[in-house]
Queue: 2 jobs
Job 1
Amino acid sequence: MSKKRFGLSMLTALAMVLMFSVTALAAGVITLKANVENGFVKATWAADADAAVTGYTVKVLDGTTVLDTQTVTEAKYTSVVTVTESKKYKVEVMTNGGANNTNTSFVEIWAPASNNVLASTDKDNNLGNANQTGNGITKNDGSTNTTVIKSSDVKNDGTTGTQRTHGEYQNNTNSCASCHQTHTGASKSLLFKDGVYNTCTACHDGTLGFYNVFESSNAGTFGGTHDGNMSVHLADGTVQVKAAPGGNLSANSGSWINEFNCASCHAPHGSYSERLLHYNPNGMGLAKTSDGGIGVKDGTIYEFASLPSAAAADAAKFILVRGTATQVGLLAADIDGGDPATTKVIMVYEDKGSAYAKSSTPWLYGYAYGNPNKSYFTRFWVTVANTAVAAPDNTIITEADGTKHFQGVVDSHDQDWNANLKIEWSKGFIYATNGDTILDNLTKGDVGRAYTVDLDLEEIARFGDANGVPIYTSNVNTLFDSAAVGYVSGKGVAMSTYCASCHVDYLAKSGSATGTFSSAYRHTTTSDSYTCVRCHYSHGTDVEVMMDAHGETVTDLTATGGAFVGDTTKATAYMLDKNPSSALKRYTNMSVCWGCHTDSKAEQLKNTFSFGDNDGQTDPHGLTPQPAMPGAIGTNNIFAPLP
């Protein structure tokens, strides 16, 4: 059994209208807007001032099929028929009478589901999968967990143990059958449910008793409501990746036009990051830095002894470096016991501004089909002028940018013809054993690099149960390491870099206009303490999980000692965002600003009486004194110290 896809808030729905709208005819009605509410199409437009206009004829079309036609006298319309979720429709408005008689304007809209309610009707082929993963879909309290086969029999060595569903598969794995059906899949990739979203939520809706994406967690929630100003990442495939704010909105090829779903952010078969965050989101692990990625494309291989100057105007953020294992800081154990002083290694080095430093980020294995051969994500070659190195295939390949090289000089399959060649994918380097000189004449290369994010899940254990699940409390200190007594260098930046694989322009330092696709002044996100997840949830939010500047939620405010003890209505009204949006905000309104900026610009007045009456005690506005900041009220807010 599958689920309805979760819906959009009103503002998000309007954004979808704008995204798929077309320019209205100049002589037709103006400011035409349309959206879908609870399955019905609604539209408004500016009324014509021409007294001869008798009304408007409105049509809703599915392609060329007219679903509804009405003649209305006011500048508004509601359909009498419902539309199907996750489809595109056209809304046409024709003027009747007057100077613009019969002129028509139109917009195209998407029809999302009305809310996140789970349906109890099948949306797939009704065929169950071998591991019974879909059992209990309509009873999401974890009580059906025991009916699901979880491959918890034996490890490869015969001992009892648990096999993981996502990655780290044993040689006798049964995990594949949790998501795929060999002959009876309901959708492409042999998924047992209708699409990625429905396959993932078959388990992650509470069926298993944990990791319920519709409940509050450090990632937020997909379970928001319209009344609660719901704002979510629309991960049900309704939109394309290029819809991301701060992204490449003009892109029309590659990963940017893929549908946005759960697998856009998470890698179901395994990851180098916690929470299965994707190793190559939006394909940006392959893209060069000028396109907002972290890969190396057609990069020159520099000798360790002659690195370019760091932070040079024309320097790439990442470069390829060749040196001995000793020079690049590797040990004999890293190179299968070889001699570090003589074994040649190629690694990626990162421009740190003042100097280059080696990067141990994992490399990506894979390929794209090309003509005449496969194009591997990670590969190296000699220039055409350098014919000193022979390879199994000396076909000269001309790249789109005119670069020519030999196909197959060194790539992921070359280990088949040269046993001395070793690629350490998880550690990010390549080397040759037994004194082999195969790396010596390489001049250029591509390296696909994996995104890696450490979320420091001790915070989840702190706010969840002893094992870290279930997770109910929203907190932003996910990148805080108590052992190091502070933010660990690189953790926060890695998280923001990950988000910027789609929201490219938003990875920025404050103080100057930045942006790969559009330039603007932006709040810094390149700090380990001021990250994307400091202000935003990755899944979604609504009034139930949002916080005020003290880090307090509706639950905190209504508890004993809270500002609205026992009064959920007042607490909810206090927490409602006055400007609801699709910003996935952790904090209501702009209270995140006040929560952090309590000591900046210290010469200015803070949150105190601006002036008073003669006795200096009464605020003429009738406002009560605000609590001192930072508030550290309760235990679940961002300012509470770790135990």
Note: The first helix runs from residue 10 to 19.
Job 2
Amino acid sequence: MNNKYIVYPNGRELHDFRELLNYSTTTFANNVAYVYKDDYTKKDFKYIEKKFSDVGNDSRALGTKLLDMGLEGKTIVVVGRNRYEWCISYFAITTSNMVVSPLDKALPENELVNSIERSGAVAVIFDDKYKDIMLEMKKTNSNVKYLICMDDIKEDGIITFNSLVEDGRKLLDAGSKIYDNITIDPEKMSIMLFTSGTTSRSKIVMLCQRNICSDITALNKIAIVGPTDTLLSFLPIHHTFECTITFLFGFSNGAKVAFCDGLKHIAKNLQEYKISVFVAVPLVLETMYKKINKGIEEKGKTKLINSLIKVSNALRKVHIDIRRKLFKQILDNFGGNLRIVWFGSAPMAKETIIGFNNFGVETIQGYGLTETSPVITAETDKYKCPGSVGFPLYNEELKIDNPDENGEGEIVVKGPMVMLGYYNDEEKNKEAFTEDGFFRTGDYGYINKEGAVFITGRKKDIIVLKNGKNVYPQEIEFLINEIPFVTESLVYQREEDSTDTMLCAKIVYDEKLLSQELGDKTPDEIKDEIWSRVKEINKNLPIFKHIKKIDVTTEPLVKTTTQKVKRYEELKNLK
């Protein structure tokens, strides 16, 4: 077990969701747990606040009614936007000895219906936008007995969320103890998650409550989030990164959660809700940082800010930290309270990481997979290593399997956060674990002398050259994406002849950004300009990693709903 990077050794431990719910709804009963707008699209919207006691009462009422309907041990799908009813559904299902299967609200209709069928769900809780899909689906899906809408609609064959909660309250008032008498087995499958399927048909991950609670326990030992914090719930809540950190980790510590009004409103919501902790992806944070820098530049204050950063950093070396006072005007762009930004899913430019830290906002990078609940490595609010994905959590074993001469190999992990396995897929389960029980992440990387983990690429994406050399395409893509007007890229291989392999790159650029930097250019001139930048990148790479051919486009790469590039689909279409 890794204890070196524990910052808060007395961080509270959790074992199951019933314990989590009972503790938080009792300890922080009168605190606000959730805040949102009744309808942010209207000018006369109202703020709705739900206390921790409301969460406890509503979860208990809904759980009681679901049990009364005979759903103990059954699977219930939840699909919809980030909202209060989604959270109550999750708590009620998992604390009532049922299995919750959160589905991606952005799935195409056929995939959504197929996932419900594969889950074996007997009930679906959903937003009203899915009403017609659900009614049509129920005609052919004999498993689904109940359609439950989170909105108050009147439709034959559909029960409303609020009516179930009200029925549950009546049962409780009549003396029902069915919910209170439930015993939770933290080792039993309680969460069924569909992977994003970047390469093929999605796998179904089985998680137990111990898995996620062990991750929350580990997070409690590396960063403090508490009752004075407000988190912005922006990333899709079905995704384990958002679900574990914002929803469950935040709730377990009495933090308030504000539901974001949408992608276009992030900056506004950060300000109006006075957000202090934000879980995001690198693209969002890099965009925020560029806007701040652009504002500084337009005001002619770049030289002043750089000087203040030097002074601030010098003072920090003697344990005097005045960043938040010194850069108050900059922090006010985020609402003035932002202090921690969690990020993951992709590398983030060091410039952005260092920039946020210079202004007094701690960046904490996490890494993991759905199969690991999800976090297995993370930086802390004390220990940082920009460029890495942080350090192994204290309650796990992480190692490099079959390292090469450079210490690189597949990252494998063993610990309480690792899934139970894939649902109904013994073949995939055998492939997923080593003989000694370590989970194969599918990511290649290495561990440095300080114990920080670095990822060099996905195992399935590694390009093996004719000379036996391994090329990790993501490393080169990261460098190409640093070109100011390039938004994304895909590095792949093509056989140049019978003795050599040629590395190629499909490069996506932003017409507006390119025009701002270079002026109007013809398509041939644009390709020549990007090619010249790639050649500069080649100069700093070993010859076997040189890009020899490029294609440029403004069309985005094909992605999953969680914005991961579908490499297999892109490669199929490349010439």
Note: The domain at 463-573 is CATH 3.30.300.30 (GMP Synthetase; Chain A, domain 3).
